[in-house]
Amino acid sequence: MSLSASLSALRDGLLAGERRALSRAITLIESTRTDHRKQASALLSSLGGVTGDAMRIGLSGTPGVGKSTFIESFGMQLIDEGRKVAVLAVDPSSTIAGGAILGDKTRMERLVRASDAFIRPSPSGGALGGVARRTREAILLCEAAGFDTVLVETVGVGQSETTVAQMTDMFLLLLAPAGGDELQGVKRGVMEIADVIVVNKADGAMKDAAERTRADYASALRLFRPRDGEAEGYPMALTASALEENGLDDIWRALKSLDAARRASGLHARRRNGQAQQWFDAALEAQLMAVFREKTDLEDLRLLVADGTLTPDAAAERGVLAFTNGTK
Ligand SMILES: Nc1nc2c(ncn2[C@@H]2O[C@H](COP(=O)(O)OP(=O)(O)O)[C@@H](O)[C@H]2O)c(=O)[nH]1
Ligand SMILES: [Mg+2]
């Protein structure tokens, strides 16, 4: 498909690595307007082949654990190594415009100013499915703009960790040092998707507690069933101080060797492939529902459900029948 002149200019700017073009392209993919969706789709299709090479790293942790501080320190370290770092946020719970990252920009002062960094707050509101689609597309745009490292941050709420794990190559879980020997009630499902658990705030008076917490998690991780084809020693637990910038080297080394091992064994490609399949299923469902809603009069059926004339199940059946019969 040939692009319009303005889309073509946007694509050129994006490929030249202009952050303004990247911002505008992300705004386009965030729009729910039908004409914008068409343009976004055309833009993404035209980028086929130039995206996909970045290291995509998911990062999660409860509010206050130090995510923003970590991203600032870690991101700056990667930039010093010559990498280009994009930071995206997934925050379906956010109702305030600007979302998770914006209010935190003070904690990312250096990263915000760095020319090799790009920080994008999560758009507010919307169902997790829509947020996931936008974030996946934003990852591709960042890659097209030359970012070789994409950090996707999410707060630890409900399904969002799983959603982020499904769009990234590796997953970092940030935890705080525990007071006693309890494992902070971290959900098993969240621990299972983590590749590297980082006990942050390993400094000052909390240093020893952090090391004990790390050891507790390391033992807990050993109880999990080994993952098929996974690199030796993963998932692993490490300590760090985002504030004092300690332990970040080890985390980066752990991520790089996990990435290298998975690329060598084919696991990286298999994961990406599985993610593409999941994305296809989600896109199919979303597009099918959009067409369905457009072609079927759901309001009448809703009323019949509301006044008890039809059961929800019978109403749904009637709706699908009306759709497949092509009647409105
Ligand atoms: N002592 C210590 N405090 C930290 C560390 N990392 C973050 N903090 C502090 O923890 C608080 C919350 O940090 P923030 O990065 O905003 O956490 P977020 O809510 O997960 O993004 C701030 O007061 C930080 O200064 C660390 O490594 N050590
Ligand atoms: Mg934060």
Structural features, described:
With 328 residues, the protein is of the alpha/beta class. The protein has three domains: 1-50, Up-down Bundle (Single alpha-helices involved in coiled-coils or other helix-helix interfaces), CATH 1.20.5.170; 51-264, P-loop containing nucleotide triphosphate hydrolases (Rossmann fold, 3-Layer(aba) Sandwich); 278-324, no CATH class. Helix content is 53%, strand content 12%. The chain has helices at 5-15, 19-30, 34-46, 67-80, 99-102, 109-113, 128-144, 160-165, 188-193, 207-222, 248-265, 267-295, 298-306, 312-324, and strands at residues 55-61, 85-90, 117-120, 149-155, 170-175, 196-199, 236-239. A seven-stranded parallel beta sheet has the order 3-2-4-1-5-6-7, with helices on both faces. Helix 1 (5-15) crosses helix 2 (19-30), helix 2 (19-30) packs antiparallel against helix 7 (128-144) and helix 13 (298-306) packs antiparallel against helix 14. Magnesium ion is lined by residues 67-68, 104. Residues 67-68, 104 line the site of magnesium ion (MG).
